[in-house]
Write a structure and sequence with these properties.
alpha/beta; TIM Barrel; eight-stranded parallel beta sheet; 8 helices; globular; manganese; metal-binding; cobalt; zinc; EC 5.1.3.1
Length: about 220
């Protein structure tokens, strides 16, 4: 589990099938699907019907990022809608271990996301249970934000915990990711890079994904 996960949130919603098919043919390993409820984050993106529509055309695994309150209510529904990976926020889950177990029981890979202000140490008791830790490198809710520099230190610390504990979870980073910071992010331990507006606003999204992939492998 490594590579590039373009965020479909930045796609052209009037041509969603076209953009999903572009990702299918690209070097991306995943399709990142941002679900926002207007409560946990100050924005609303889309919900189950759009996720299911994306799944109908996607040939890459759907990496579903649930930026929502009480995500347990919808885990089974998002799994049915095509989610291969379901990532919940530490900040939204008072019973995180139970939530992670539920995701795994549904047959999906379980991920946990951390907001920029949340230290990685809060996850020490759950690291052995998850497939993915998502480090937010912007405050969640909107695309196109500036990368928070402290993210490098957080990823490095999480990578250290992974090595020391012998864990096999992947480290994903989301927010302000581009070609200039891809090599350093990879160097400090990031495995999966989420990029939205950087990919979809570029002249040739497929070439941009390939360039990020190449930079990740240097």
């Amino acid at each position: 589990m490594s590579g590039i996960a373009p965020s479909i949130l930045a796609a052209d919603f009037a041509n969603l099938q076209r953009d999903v098919e572009m990702l299918n043919a690209s070097a991306a390993e995943y399709i990142h699907v941002d679900i926002m409820d207007g409560m946990f984050v100050p924005n609303i993106s889309f919900g189950l019907p759009v996720c299911e529509a994306i799944s109908r055309h996607a040939k890459k695994p759907l990496d579903v990022h649930l930026m929502i309150e009480q995500p347990d209510r919808y885990l089974a529904d998002f799994r049915k809608a095509g989610a291969s990976i379901m990532t919940v926020h530490y900040e939204a889950c008072p019973h995180l271990h139970r939530t992670v177990q539920h995701i795994k029981e549904l047959g999906a890979l379980a991920g946990v996301a951390l907001n920029p202000h949340t230290p990685v140490e809060v996850l020490t008791e759950i690291l052995s249970e998850v497939s993915l830790i998502l480090i937010m490198s912007v405050n969640p809710g909107f695309g196109g934000q500036k990368f928070i520099e402290n993210t490098y230190k957080k990823i490095s610390r999480l990578n250290q915990l992974r090595r020391e504990g012998g864990y096999d979870f992947k480290i994903e980073v989301d927010g302000g990711v581009n070609l200039s910071n891809t090599p350093r992010l990879t160097e400090v331990g990031a495995d999966i890079l989420v990029a939205g507006s950087f990919v979809f606003s570029s002249e040739n999204p497929s070439q941009t994904i390939q360039a990020m992939k190449n930079a990740q492998e240097i």
